[in-house]
Fold this protein.
Amino acid sequence: MLIVLALVIGAAFGAAAHFALPGRSLRGAALGPIGGSALGALAWTALTWAGLGPDSVWVWLVSVLLPAIVVPLALTALTRARARADQQTRSALGI
């Protein structure tokens, strides 16, 4: 049941990253929260399957820090890729 906390914390970091980073109009509003919650849940699941319990500080640390680090990097990369693709499309269409 504690995995729900990892989901909520990951979604909060994803939402914060979406609104803090530039280029919001180039990506969906749900991309950050969904990515953050997925990373938090995956980290929690992987570490509990590895034998760590919810009383371990590593489970909490990794499931909180992984979304906080990876989601802003991923959103930045996706925004740049979208801007580059949009520019190529504009050039191809002569706009």
Summary: DSSP finds three helices and no strands in the chain.
